[in-house]
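Hi team,

Filling in the usual template for the complex we talked about on Friday. All components are listed, including any nucleic acid strands or ligand strings, so the model treats them as one assembly.

SUBMITTER: L.P.
PURPOSE: interface mapping
COMPONENTS: two
RESIDUES: 1453
SEQUENCES:
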Amino acid sequence: MMLLHRGIAASADALQRTQAEAPKALPVAGIAPGERISCTREVGGQLVGGSGMSGSLVRRSLLTAAIAFCATALYSQSISNSAFPERQSEKARDIPAASMDSQITVPGPLRSLERMAGISQKVDMDEVLPLLARNVYVQGYIGWQDQGRPTEFLILLGRYVNQAQEIANLAGQGGVVHVVNCQEVEPLLKVLGYRLRQQCGQTNASLITADEDRAFLSSDSGFPLVALENAIRGVKPFSYQYPQSKVPVLFSERDWTALAKESRWKHSLLDTFLHHPTIARLYWAMSRMDPETRFALKQSPGLASLLPLAPDLDFYGSHIVIRSGRALVPGGADAEDAWKAVVGANPSNGSDFATRLLTKDKGWLAAFYDCMSRVSRDQQQHFADRHRLESAYAAFRGSQSLTDAARPAFRLASGLLLLLNNLQWDAQGNPIVPGNVDLWKSVFSQKHESKLEKEWGKHANKWTKPDEVLDAMFAMSRTDVEYGPLQMFLAFSELNANRPPERALKPETFKLLAAHYADYSDQYLIFSEFPQLDDIAISTFVHSAEAIDKISNHVLRGNAMGTFQAEIGLWQILARQHEIPEEQMNPSFLAVTKAFGAINNATQLFDAGRQSLGATLQAATGRASVSQQELIEMLAGPKPADAEGKRVHDELAKGIRSVMDGQRLVSLDTLMTLGRGLDDMAHGANIGASLVPFAGELQEFQMPRPIFTSSERSEWAAGVYNNRHTDMQMQTDLSKILKAPASHDQIEEARGKLAPFLRDTLVGFNYAYYEPPGSQLLRTNPLFVRSHDFAGETVGGIENLWRAPQLFGEGSPAGGGAHLVGSLADLPYALSEAEQDFITPENVQALIWRETVPELLTDSVFPRWWNVSRNELHAAALYQRAGEELLNAAESNQDVRAKVVNILSQRMSPATVSRVEEHLGNAEANQAMSMVTPSNLVCLTAEYRRLYPQDTSVWGTAGKELDQLSQSDPHVTSWQRISRDFGIPHPRLTQSYARQVLGLEPFPAFAGYSSRLMAESWESNNLYWARLADEMGYPPVMLNILAPQLTRRMVEKIFATDFEDWPALLRAMREAGNDFRSGKMAVLPVQAEGSRAAAE
Amino acid sequence: MRMSSVRSIVALTVLLGGPLVVGGISQEGNSADIQVIVNMVQLNVAVTNNKGDYITNLRPEDFTVMEDGIPQKIATFGEGNERTRRIEGAVAESNVPSNPAGAQAALPDSVSTSVLSSLVAGSNVFILFDTSNYMYRGFVFAQDAISDFVRSLENADKIAFYSYSRDLSRSSVLTKDRAQILHSVRSTVAGDDAALYNSLLLTVKDAAQYQGRKVIVVFSNGPDNSSVVPPEDVAELAQSTGTVIYMISTRAAQLEPVSTAVFERMTAATGGKAYFAKNWKEEKQAFSSIREDLAHLYSLAYYPKPNPNRGWRQITVKLAGSRPSYHIRTRNGYRPLPARFSTAENHPPEAQASGTN
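RESULT (copied from the run log):
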């Protein structure tokens, strides 16, 4: 307890010095001044995480807070990992008797309660009650607040608590269920819901169900029934530890039970939670706040007053920070007046400010404030101006009547957070509007998707300043529109973000893109990824897509869409792998897209496909023609010169071939041979007979042996089963044309029949390249590629087929298997989404959530590491290890601690950073490290080196080596390189597939995105895999194999409680790493020199 | 000569009995590939009379095996749990085709004897238990029934216990340790959607990793609301890897025609049986029937005669002579795995040299 007090107070002292002494950023080797790096955002403004206080008054407040804090349970998300402290055993996790008023007793083993309450059994003890409370209000009721109807989950949980109490009574004071003879077993069996089929003591005695409900609870909660059965069979004593578990509680149990309306639910906190979801939600919300803030709110306005605000506090309250009674607002002291005006309360009275914030505008102001709190201090500073802040909020709030912002199942206004994160500013502090203001005037004057858009469109023609456009974007950010002006603004901002000013896209190009935004927006991400593409290339893409859209024959249109996008996909892969030289990117892309500008029949489509592919190959190899084997080799990556690289390359090529085999696709060689042969025949060559064997290959494909009859499919899978595309292919017979004399037109027509096959083969290459780890569908279902529905034939209601594909046919046994409908945009994610459930979790209740895992899988196959040097790989590891050195130094050095906390507070929630600070103050650096993600470690090192270059004494071996490496090879240690080569794509966060590390705090779940934004803000995997590879002596190219394998292993190990549970990702990632380090994962053996880091 | 026959045998086993991956399930890399080499075809055959009684003591010459109408020579034979025996001259008489996949390297000679003897030395039984929300009612009764089944299996049998809802859970890998299996059965947790065919596919692939007779017993309520693979793919893979599937459904499946159709047809295609149990007593009877079936299956294997068909190959097994009242149940065919892209062998030389425009 004293350590805790000393830690917080000490760091406050240190922080004062830090604020006064913090130097201006100086250039250091590897990080250029002014380099655009998210991780090294300017440090300024106020500090959060228990550190923004000063003077003796502050220390007194801290002392008070610390004492109260010590009497409460602390938020903790420590990680189980061999490199870090394991989760303590349940016995060891018991709290000392000295703090009895801050714990409660629950009947039975904690593991059983966690199992029944849907809580990961790997969480720390002080997370048990918050998560229980969360699950009660999220899963326990159907309906709003306390008026809801209990779900089966809640009923079972309630029954379990009762049963556990009965067993605990049998266990008695000693906490051990002990049965020594047949007579004693009867009462236990009755409670458990079982009976004996044979006589007790007989060798074949076994348990069978007597009471279904009780037996279900016994089994589901993990009671050792088999051990009991064995004991009964052998008439041996049965002994089972059945302790009353003690778990920490925020404040005291009485504080919470007193809130219950009925006295019968005031007896225990469990009763209170189970019957009052609102109290449970308030408990959860308070547990997400930092200790000082929640204590301040408990004091004023108090828990009873906060109860009606529980939903708002839950969704939008975790970044409210009160220090010494004062609210620390986004933008710091400079912004206090602005916030005072917007909120209507002075931040100097933190509790009043927070209460007003939560109350005003039905939670919308809190939502606005929460988003503002989550972005960088740089961005916050731009809204310190009162007029700008008021104007932004007024626009965001709107003039319409408001619904409750915390009423839906998910947080709202994700667009606001995306907008704030991506806003760009010019040197004068004005927002940068892509294109120009006129562009946005015209955007708002076009057709409107929503009333709000229409309303703003009325005034758009008067806009003259960028700020007016920005206000419109704030207004749009409150609406739940998928493809509106805000999304367009974000996408267009990104389009110009990486282009030099002289190559910025012209307003006319933006106008063209804007005009087709609703149709082609998902395709625009390629333009962000490749700033080499100019206005003409981009316009040509749009015009070709338009031309394809105008094809009236839907079969031809579908084949054209598929072929066109597959061609672009292949270009994208080869360009990304630098197999297409940079100077060739724009002309080759132009040629690839231009080929599809005028398609009127299948023959033209086949020819366009050949021409387009030829353009890509010409740019990549200097030849317009390669064999399919060569193409597969190219897709596998640039062929390295060294043996290790070749092995990796061969493995990747093998994987692509396996998928192509699994799909039983016609080879590209066959199609091209037939195409050329038919060309020659059209010009009079008599070679038909020689082509017959090739034509036979078109007919080799057989449908899987049917289980259902046609009529059954019509009845049971109407609208789902549709293999018309494949059926038509199977009827293709070119042999008649080849064997008998045919007219020119007939030969031309025959060539057109190859078009659907070419489409499938090209699409197949795209699928194969992005094959997620652990995939089955791609290798087992031969209809998967063929069934990709580009034309929307199989389902109705698809608004736009150029958008990212959706999976259809799931859970329809007569439907012939799931397939994708839509374009090839976002294909890696779509494939991962389809394949994710083939990964088998190690843990029951693993809760492998549906948006996060596909993103993790995508991030493991999308990046490739062909051009990464060993030094760069080593640098990625050094950044992480140096970050740990900093945390170690912060343990004993208050000054360093304050700096470290200051940096971390920009990318961690106040509660988490507060916990890290507490650990550091308690000389528990390892505990602190367990909460810091690899991406945060990298950012911490980068930021510290940038801000305090003269502060060299803090570094250990890794930090010093990083310095040396920075001097000898500055390029490989630059943030830009590390971010590019070990970062991930952020198609939703930044509207681009360009890889980078943004260094953001994990996003919460939002309506419309669920946990996908969180997944995109989880950037640690590849950095961590790089560190492991470096430690184990693997060359960088091995990451091409290791990253998918390690990610798959990580996914197997995820043991989460909810879809915002990023600590579960951290835990699983490190567990996978431990398996790798200990040799539990088989990978290609190292051929190069041994471990570098291991030797240190 | 001996060398070549040994290699042929091993390679054949790899194909239809499952790859000889020593050590069991491969979790690394992509284990999605099951190489089906068509050198030896193994059949599990049940012969019953009109009353459903098993016909025993049949000899190899009592069986006639045809593949795509081509008569085949039985190479190995066994009944029930007895060890299989080689039929002299079978290999020599067969014109063993070249391996179309050309994939698997031969194993050492020392392996061959154990490979042969393991073909029928007990069964590898994979139990797949539906723990989805569909099974919530009656969940514990199902656990009771499965526990009884596990206790009743012959000691020679190895058992794996898997459960599924939306995802597969490999609760217990193949083992002779019954206590471990029972513990796994009692530790299952109910909940979530049902992805029967996804999970069955993974189970078939796991089973295919092992030598010997492979049997999957599915205990399910029937409906599937989240699989992405269709049952056709699962059935084909089971047929091609020689895996017998038995399915026990609760009554609801019979009420649901889609599941009923799949259960009946998939099990028939693989040589297994489907049961629709209205209550726990019938569930127990179903398990008892499966146990009996396992004890009475004949195990036949043959080396396919040359067959140009690279697609689906139809298998027909009959009893020699006139025995019309007897019924034969076994898988009805298999599909060799294509390897167009994986190997260069299948491409005409001209195609190899061809290129794109």
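MY TAKE: The CA atoms of residues 452 and 1059 of chain A lie 31 Å apart. Chain A touches chain B through 97 residues (CB under 8 Å).

Thanks, L.
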